[in-house]
Design a protein that fits this description.
This protein starts with a helix and ends with a helix. With 51 residues, the chain is mainly α. It contains one helix and no strands. The protein is rod-shaped.
């Protein structure tokens, strides 16, 4: 019986860990997107200034 409880707890913690990593991954992707948008805006502004 104790073994089943142990397995359930480990599975639960594993699921939590995966969800946490997934959330962090989404945040990182969001930050990368914001950075690339900023780079893109910068490039457009530079091109406009050259005209």
């Amino acid at each position: 019986m104790e073994f089943l409880i142990f397995v359930a707890v480990v599975a639960f913690l594993g699921t939590l860990a995966v969800l946490t990593v997934d959330e962090q991954h989404k945040e990182i992707l969001k930050l990368k997107t914001q950075l690339s948008k900023a780079d893109f805006d910068l490039a457009i502004n530079k091109a406009k200034n050259k005209e």
